[in-house]
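Our preliminary data section would be incomplete without showing what the modeling component actually yields. Below, a chain of 287 amino acids is followed by its predicted structure, encoded as tokens that our downstream tools consume directly.
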Amino acid sequence: MQNKFISPLISLKRTNDVFSKHILLRKEHKAFLIDLLNAVIFDKGHHPEDEKILDVSLEDRVLSPLHPEDKIGILDIRAHTRKRIYTIEIQQYFEKDIGARSYYYASKVLGSEITRGVPYHKLTPVIIINFLTHNHLSTKNYHSCYHFNEDDEHSRLTDIVTFHFVEFPKMKKKVTSVMSRLEKWVTYLGAKAPAGEVIIPEDTMFKELAEVEKVFSKDKEEMLRYEAAERYEMDYASHMSSAELKGRKDQALETAKKMLNSGFPVSQIAELSGLSESEILKLKQQA
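Predicted structure:
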């Protein structure tokens, strides 16, 4: 099938996995990644000015997947400085276990250091950044930051892991001239506009990004990968509901099996599992 390049009339999806890596993972585009990371960490004001990121080393890591929806376990973007490791993921669908997912990735990054024999006190702090195109958290702010704090006194247990969640739909609309740096990035990444259109006209960096988009949209190989990523996301979204229902049914069947083995009456199992008595009797016959 002949490849269809993005025309001036077709919107570019800037959260697309292939495009976001194109602008943030290439060495020649390192300035974009540094600017985005600084926009996130200084948005909350928790970092002294002397910790501003001036340079990063780029990585592209693949983790062993635990779940099929993990897109073969790819940590979308990973970079590190002398003081910290940063990972960025752009989530384009609702993930009910987003907290557990982020914690899993943080543990994998820390675990990779421990296996190299690094003592605990020398572990490099990990910053997990999630850009979310759907609302996931109960917080009101579009940018939420989490640490390990004591419940009552709120003292910090450790700074070894920090979690940032940036939820696009919660960000209030503003004119670009009064936006914070992070708000500009969220506006850019969430924009649905033709490739090459300048999303933040008064900002030089976003003008440069518009020029990068023009080159990207004319690259046959990149566009094939872009379209493949779009098809994956569309196919996954269309099957999410049915997959979730199947998962619930499998869990109910497993619960029913355990209750049967423990001697619970069929009527009680039906009440607690949500299965019909005929389904439970069928399980009983198969046992």
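The two ends are 50 Å apart (CA to CA). Residues 62-75 have pLDDT under 50 and may be disordered. Preliminary results of this kind motivate Aim 1 of the renewal.
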